[in-house]
Fold these 4 entries.
Entry 1:
Amino acid sequence: MLMLPPAVKIFLCAEATDMRRSFDKLAEMTRLVLAQDPMSGHLFVFFNRPRDRVKILFWDRSGFCLYYKRLEQGCFRPPHTSNGRHEIAAAELTLILEGIELAGSTRQKRFSLSGQ
């Protein structure tokens, strides 16, 4: 499972992304499509149309970093969203990257300071 500081958020872009895009174009999509600051330290996740490739963009205090994964078989199953963006937890991103569909999984109740 990904071990991220609690302040780090993860945003999925629901719009299919051209995987030829690199740092600057993905940062631009982060601003325009996700309405977020790409230098915030959060993770921004982009999938291609067939959903067999994923890029994750993040800022690490001195520059942009890019994680890129290509599946040899199958596809990723990110959650569907109507507004073009979706915020998920680190555990959910781990499940998506491991090939587990979130729609069929259930989350057990846990204690939360926010009362959710």
Entry 2:
Amino acid sequence: MSLECVPSNPSPQLTHSEPDDLTETDAIRLAQEGDAGAFERIFRLYSRRVYSLCLRMVRNQSEAEDLTQEAFLQLFRKIHTFRGESTFSTWLHRVSVNVVLMRLRKKNLVEIPLENAQEGRTKIPSERKSAPPTPC
């Protein structure tokens, strides 16, 4: 008898449709259901637009590429939350901007050297142990 390790919460099985055969609406719906081909179609439709946005915001090609990848990872994690109240491109734009802003916030937090933070503190003079009595 062999024992298999089965995760308690297995991830859904990704199906694979042909990405070029899908309309944008179908691709979004299928990607929400876990279809890898549909997600690929979305990536092909929007990757240049997301990259351009990231590049405009950070002005660094390498960092823009990383942020584009991070934006699509975030999209993969959050696509099920897209409700269709706005256009998909608007929703993806907002997801991408949020990814870039979070990176910039983290970067700014790291860049503050500790030496500069302690310069603003004032030193409290220590009391003298053997101070002469003051005359009355």
Entry 3:
Amino acid sequence: MPTPDPLDSFHVALEARHLSELTFAEVRRALQALSSVYVERRDRMAEGAVFDGAGKRAAFALYYGPMHFLLVREIARALGPSAKTCRRILDLGCGTGTAGAAWALECGPRTRVEAVDRNGWAVAETRWTLARFRLDGRAIRADAATWPLPKPPAGILAAFTVNELEEGARSRLLPRLLDAGRSGSTVLVVEPISRRVTPWWPAWAEAFGAAGGHEDEWRVRPALPPRLALLGKAAGLDARELTGRSLVLPA
């Protein structure tokens, strides 16, 4: 008998958490608005538009959070042993904490997660995520771009985070990540596949390659929790294929 996917029960609990005061239709409309911010109105992201209002927060938690979990889990599995030996993971710009949780679950139950985000709601949601997955860790409200990186060996994750940083902060973060990788930590950067939202990507890919890392492009079709698939379809989003790009510095 196949082992149940922990994401299934997690998403059921997410719905109970976020649909207690919102209807499915309200979350669907909020997800459409949130998608518009990501694709067409990215200038509003610096203003906090992603988590602006209960509807968008619920939409992010119920849709983008699980999708980030699925993509990062697929990447961690594909990277093999080098990505599964971490006993401490730092999740920079954690959002709802699902990406860091996905990597930690692949590393084993003793893996500790430290998550950082500048948004207070995201930090609270990450604490709930870690508790729900029974992962040891903490979430802190702080600037992901300047938070101290852990001593190696560790896993350092920046999933859908670097594209939201200001140019100066992004430039300062790159050499810190490279130094961490050279010192023995595994560094994983995950971003959307669209080059329009990541014009800085070629320079980062070149720097990672020079440091012994590699760049990958992902197109995966994981099984989705039924209500996750339904929400994406209702909002007009194609959730059948997950796409993304990654940069990796293996330990």
Entry 4:
Amino acid sequence: MAVAERVARRVQVTKLQLQAEDAEARLRQTYEALGQCLYATHAALAPEAVNVDAALPLCESVRAEQRALQEIRDRLASRYDDVLIVPLIRLQEDLQTGGGTIERVTVVPNAQADGKPLGEAVLPESVRIVLVRRSDTLLFPSAQLVLQAGDQLTLIGTRSELPGALQSFRT
């Protein structure tokens, strides 16, 4: 029963992640449309006669998409509290008993990993990235995920190997 509940929670979190990605894409498209509208209005008229009223509906669309995205992020954050925080504390306790640890590191600008796919990260065999936090969004690691400066990574591994693995994200 506990396994089924964990799977159901992960499915809910994954669905919310996909909804957040869709909302972010819609928001980017709306921003692009707004920019194109403003540029077209500016290019067609004399600069002193720019008609901003044509862009107002797009501004409302941007606000609506921002609200929708924030609502999804809030729901996602509440799910992560239930799904991840308590189990990670228990996991850290278990790891310490067995010689392991969990660490969080922030990717700094121009670090070796900045701008590269996660699959290219060179990590010892005993170290794994288990979670990537980008702004308010939690991402599950995949080889194709491109790391960015500011990403917070949660790593799990042995106490002896983990400090060296953190360096590629800091330098």
